[in-house]
Amino acid sequence: MRPGGTQANDRVLATVYGAFRTGYNLRTMPSRLSLTRRISTLLGIAVLGLGLLTIPSFVYASDDLHIEITKKGLGKEVVITQGTREWFMLIEVTPENSVVLRQEKEQDRYLVDESETHDRPMTLGEVDAAITDYINSVKARAVKK
């Protein structure tokens, strides 16, 4: 017995090692890390995909015709450029009506600036059809000039 000590404190403490099946061991760690890596990869791909969906889509046609289509709320916007010429169409859809705006510009001079208002909202199919028709008409006119 040590001076000032008690019998209970004089016991020898031994380190005991044990293996538990529910704990972490070297075999389970890599599988958990690979699962985390897989989930991170899938989330990264999903975020990248969503990011690509939110940027304007770029479509190139012949004769340096550059077409950019952007979704604007319930409507769409298209900007077509060829050199110093620019064609613009905006379809704005609200619950009450739809507004279609068309502009054609060469350098800083507007050749066409017109708008039309519809008394009802256009459907998504009607918006897509109007954008496609406008792009095709610009392509036909741009090739001639």
> Gyration radius, to the nearest Å?
34 Å
Q: Describe the global form.
A: extended
Assembly level: single chain
**What is the average per-residue confidence, as pLDDT, rounded to a whole number?**
77
Q: Order of strands in the sheet with the most strands? A: 1-2-3-4-5-6
Beta-strand content bin: 25-35%
Helix content: 25-40%
Strand count: 6
Q: Point out poorly predicted stretches.
A: 57-62
The ordered string of helix (H) and strand (E) elements is: HEEEEEEH
Treating each run of at least 4 consecutive H or I residues as one helix, how many helices?
2
Pairing-aware structural class of the strands and helices?
A: alpha+beta
Biggest sheet descriptor: 6 strands, antiparallel
Overall domain count: 2
Separation, N- and C-terminal Cα atoms: 110 Å
Keywords for this entry:
145 residues, 6-stranded antiparallel beta sheet, 6 strands
Q: What would your notes on this structure say?
A:
This protein is an alpha+beta fold. The chain folds into two domains: 14-54; 57-144. 33% of the residues lie in helices and 34% in strands. The protein has helices at residues 28-54, 124-144; strands at 57-61, 65-72, 75-82, 85-93, 98-106, 109-118. The radius of gyration is 34 Å and the shape is extended.
